[in-house]
Amino acid sequence: MIRIVLFDIDGTLLHTGGAGIKAFAKAFATEFGAHDGTERLKFAGRTDISLVREFFGLHGIVPTQAHFDRFFDAYVHWLKQIIVQSSGGACVGVPEFYHALRSTPNPPLIGLLTGNIKRGAEVKLGHYGWWEKFAFGGFADDSEQRAEIAAVAQRRGGELFGRPVTGDETLVIGDTPLDIACARAIGAKVLAVATGGATLDELKSHDPDWLVKDLTECVASEVLG
User: Fold this and answer.
1) Any residues with CB less than 8 A from the CB of 110 and at least 6 apart, and which?
2) pLDDT in tens, 126-155
3) CA 197, CA 10: separation in Å to the nearest integer?
4) Residue 110, SS3?
5) I want to staple 144 with a disulfide (CB 3.0 to 4.6 A). Which of 49, 114, 189, 201 is the partner?
6) Residue 215 and residue 94 in contact, taking contact as beta carbons nearer than 8 Å
7) Do the beta carbons of residue 43 and residue 54 sit within 8 Å?
8) How far apart are CA 53 and CA 201, in angstroms?
9) Measured between alpha carbons, how far is 225 from 11 in angstroms, rounded to an integer?
């Protein structure tokens, strides 16, 4: 039986109208005078830390902690401003599926597994009224690597549950091959949704346990076991 469910954010829970990417570009421009390069970054499934490190490399910026801190302070500042001007909201089927998870006889703990830094995740989810719906999570602040973030999220879920939670008691919901890979790294089951950038065929090639166009096609009780 699934004891914890871990949701990715961008393309799985929410669409933000590109607010995060726009805030990245604005922070790089205002803080480092770097006005191009974000279009070369592949954001889907990546961690914020790895994206900034790659951009720093493209522009010859030394990846010091001070530079990371400076970037992310600016990023959160711009994200707060940009997201209120952006279209977006929950992905198709998310509210109904979340409610179904919470309504099962033995509801799982529901958390986040995301490449966003925690402050960025809070801005995005908070704007659409979703931040308080998640009791715990793993974030880019915890590690640059998605597999390590997954392990942290699983451990935190186990702490809330009262004992360590195994891989076959963990379900990861994501929209990219990298979400599937980080789930497999902790032995978790995977529900892949084609609501982000990856197609059904691309996701299928990575062999998720369940694959749906969106969460309207999925019955919560069936994936919880």
Assistant:
1) 4, 5, 7, 98, 101, 102, 133, 134, 135
2) 999 999 999 999 999 999 999 999 999 999
3) 10
4) strand
5) 49
6) yes
7) no
8) 30
9) 25
Please give the domain boundaries of the chain with CATH numbers for all domains. 4-16+88-224 (3.40.50.1000), 19-83 (1.10.150)
Would you list the DSSP string of 81-103?
HHHTTS--EEPTTHHHHHHHHHH
Question: What CA–CA distances, in Å, run from 9 to 16, 62, 63, 141?
Answer: 10, 29, 26, 15
Read off the pTM: 0.93
Reading the block at residue 19, the tokens are 């607010």
Quote the tokens at residue 145. 């690597």
State the DSSP code for 48. H
- Take residue 23 and report the two structure tokens written for it: 């805030």
Q: Distance between CA atoms of 199 and 8, rounded to whole angstroms? A: 16
Read off the pLDDT of residues 161-212 as tens digits, 9 standing for 90 and up.
Answer: 999 999 999 999 999 999 999 999 999 999 999 999 799 999 999 999 999 9
Asked if 137 and 151 count as a contact pair (C-beta separation under 8 A), the reply is: no
- Measuring CA to CA, how many Å separate 192 from each of 56, 57, 88, 105? 31, 32, 21, 24
- 192 pairs with which residues across the strands? 174, 211
